Amino acid sequence: MADQEQQQQLPEAPFPAPPPFWKHFTVANEDRLKQIEATEGSSPAKLPLPLAYLRPPPAPPASAEYYTTFGQKQVIDPTKPSSLPREQLLFNPDDPNLNHAVLLSRLTKSLLLNFLELTSILSLDPTKHVEKMEDIRQLVLNIHVVINMYRPHQARESVKEMLEEVLVNGQKEIDECDRLKERVDGFLRSVGELKTAHATDGQLPADGSPAPQATDNAKLEEQRKLWKLIHETTD
């Protein structure tokens, strides 16, 4: 019953109205469905039509090549040769020497040429457009098939770009760590040289008693140089 109502509402307009069963998705119907499932089990034998729409359809089997949506068949995996409409293909998808880039370029050029021919036909005799429109549809189908055959290649290239970006970012982090390590090593060497210079300049006089003023000045000078090194390192 649900399938019959759905088939009667096939989308024919460019912007068709939504299927009529959307009206059945209400809170009250959801509560009724929960009550029925609680009393009769998770899979009741028969449900009223408004409640049947609330149950999702079963998934297609693994061997299925098509699934149905809004009464129309859709291909599950367009890249599989068994799912391609071979009677409308202009090339052999199983050819090992098939060049997808060249084929796609030829198909797009043919599509442009057929469109120009269609404009000529429409200007001379619009009643003869049917055959040319079929040619254009066939070309569009072939272009769509070639693009779908590119999906695995596109996925590999996307993963490759992501991995390359990870490597580049990792190398940048390593270079930054090396640069910071060099700055820290240079800072430590400068501090060591500063300590050595201060020890040399701060030798005791002959009587062995250091001058307090000289010692304080030396410490201040050491601290100034140390702060200067810190600022130069952190800038």
From TrEMBL:
GO MF: transcription coregulator activity
Chain positions covered by the region annotation Disordered: 1-21
SUPFAM superfamilies membership: Mediator hinge subcomplex-like
Cellular-component GO terms for this entry: core mediator complex; mediator complex
Presence of keyword Transcription: yes
Principal location listed in the UniProt entry: nucleus
Keyword Oxidoreductase belongs to the record: no
Keyword vocabulary terms for this entry: Activator, Nucleus, Transcription, Transcription regulation
GO biological process, one term: regulation of transcription by RNA polymerase II
Localisation: Nucleus
Biased composition (Low complexity): 1-12
InterPro entries assigned: Med7/Med21-like, Mediatior_Med7, Mediatior_Med7_sf
Subunit structure: Component of the Mediator complex.
PANTHER family the record matches: MEDIATOR OF RNA POLYMERASE II TRANSCRIPTION SUBUNIT 7
Family: Belongs to the Mediator complex subunit 7 family.
Stated role: Component of the Mediator complex, a coactivator involved in the regulated transcription of nearly all RNA polymerase II-dependent genes. Mediator functions as a bridge to convey information from gene-specific regulatory proteins to the basal RNA polymerase II transcription machinery. Mediator is recruited to promoters by direct interactions with regulatory proteins and serves as a scaffold for the assembly of a functional preinitiation complex with RNA polymerase II and the general transcription factors.
Name recorded for this polypeptide: Mediator of RNA polymerase II transcription subunit 7
